[in-house]
Design goal:
Rossmann fold; Pyruvate-ferredoxin Oxidoreductase, domain 3; 2 domains; seven-stranded mixed β-sheet; six-stranded mixed β-sheet
Length: 440
């Protein structure tokens, strides 16, 4: 509850609605606003998620948090938001087109019973792109893509959600004076709620099919699609159940979700970018992560971007790391200051980059891979006989940290030790880095 009564959640500066005259979308938006006023939820605790389509225009009219994404993907965004912060009331405004394109997401939201509310603006066609038929277009209906009448059976959105585990399912029309109360019930439900709201598309479907309120209601009856609350099922909401299931295991995780406090002083004057090039399965990403965490422990900003093929366990493995005394706003590394090349697979991947390097850049390279074509200063890494190959990446980064003097080696040691399950062997690899670089 808020400190004072909220009389509307709409942003009056954005009104009037941009929907076509006679479109049911405006009525649904009004009823959603009425439901929110009834519930008196803090604006900052409400998130409206939309995607492409006329329904996707709706979020702009509300003074709450909003996310507008790709067609059919609104339920995936909503799931992520709810998992990140279960205290939020997440409301998805999706069209019948979005339910068709994102049908798999609808099924998975229902079976997880994720605590979001989905309002389906079901106008029986793709109203934004020209009136093509959708998954809910009734049999025999004329659309831009079914000129001789639709031959497909329409998808029963409510039955689909209910049979897959949604805990609240209802169907109605935009003409229903009880719609706001239904929305209140849906939002109050802790699990996945869905209301399939049938309405008229004034631009395409209604004119082409001479469709009106009476025919809309008769079509529901002819299809055997009941209205009202169709399904109620009390079972655990996914975001809360997930937190409860994992709470007892948090202390056992290698790294918990908490900030790394700066404990060391860095020596970096300006931004530096690094590319670590190796082979899949050789802990390239692990070493890069420890490198970035060591920077954080030294009061620097750090980013990491990894690249590897879909095969994962074969081929190249690349990590791009940016360290900076100031905030990093762009993750791209077009020309790195330092390249660390450890295995042939990675060297092939960065070969063109090496040719572009100048004398100001450095190439730290496994001595066994020499010679290479580059104008950069070449610093050989003598890794042979220094332990298992899977530890070479940590050895190399430890050597680079010391040689480049970007931050203290002790910070890197502490970063490596954060992964408690492998701390002992990884710290041993760091200590084995002594003598890897003989160039001074």
């Amino acid at each position: 509850m808020t400190g004072h009564e909220i009389t509307t959640y709409l942003d009056e500066e954005m009104l009037p609605y941009t929907f076509c005259p006679g479109c049911g979308h405006g009525t649904i938006v009004d009823q959603l606003n009425a439901a929110l006023v009834e519930l008196q939820i803090e604006r900052r605790k409400v998130v409206i998620v939309t995607d492409i389509g006329c329904a996707g225009l709706s979020d702009r009219f509300f003074e709450v948090n909003a996310l507008h994404g790709l067609h059919g993907r609104s339920l995936t965004y909503a799931t992520g938001i709810k998992l990140a912060n279960p205290d939020l009331k997440v409301i998805v405004l999706i069209g019948d087109g979005g339910c068709g394109i994102g049908g798999n997401h609808l099924i998975n939201a229902a079976r997880r019973n994720i605590g979001v509310t989905a309002l389906v603006f079901n106008n029986l066609n793709y109203g934004m792109t020209g009136g093509e038929h959708s998954v809910t277009t009734p049999p025999g209906a004329i659309t831009a893509t079914t000129r001789y009448g639709n031959l497909e059976r329409p998808m029963d959105i409510c039955a689909t959600a209910a049979v897959n585990g949604a805990s609240f399912v209802a169907r109605t029309t935009s003409f229903d004076k009880n719609l706001a109360n239904l929305i209140v019930q849906a939002i109050k439900n802790e699990g996945f709620s869905l209301i399939d709201v049938w309405e008229l598309c004034a631009a395409y479907f209604a004119p082409t099919n001479r469709f009106n309120k009476r025919l809309l209601e008769e079509t529901l009856v002819s299809l055997g699609f009941a209205t009202g609350v169709l399904h109620l099922d009390e079972r655990p909401e996914y975001a809360q159940a997930y937190r409860a299931a994992t709470a007892s295991q948090l202390d056992q995780l290698p790294l918990r979700g908490q900030p790394l406090e700066a404990r060391f002083d860095h020596h970096l004057k300006s931004q530096m970018s690094f590319v670590i090039a190796g082979a899949a399965g050789q802990k390239i990403g692990t070493a890069a992560t420890a490198f970035a965490r060591g920077a954080l422990l030294s009061g620097l900003w750090a980013t990491q971007r990894d690249d590897y093929p879909v095969t994962v366990r074969s081929g190249h493995s690349l990590s791009e790391v940016i360290l900076s005394p100031q905030e990093v706003r762009y993750l791209g590394v077009p020309r790195p200051d330092v390249v660390v090349a450890l295995f042939e697979e990675g060297l092939k991947k960065v070969a063109s980059r090496l040719e572009q390097l100048t004398e100001q850049q450095r190439l730290y390279i496994n001595a066994e891979l020499l010679p290479v074509k580059t104008s950069a200063r070449v610093i050989p890494l003598n890794l042979r006989g220094k332990g298992l190959k899977k530890h070479w990446s940590l050895m190399a980064i430890a050597a680079v940290v010391r040689h480049e003097d970007v931050y203290p080696l002790q910070a890197f040691r502490q970063a490596v030790a954060l992964n408690k399950a492998f701390a002992e062997e990884n710290l041993a690899a760091v200590e084995a880095a002594d003598g890897v670089i003989t160039d001074n």
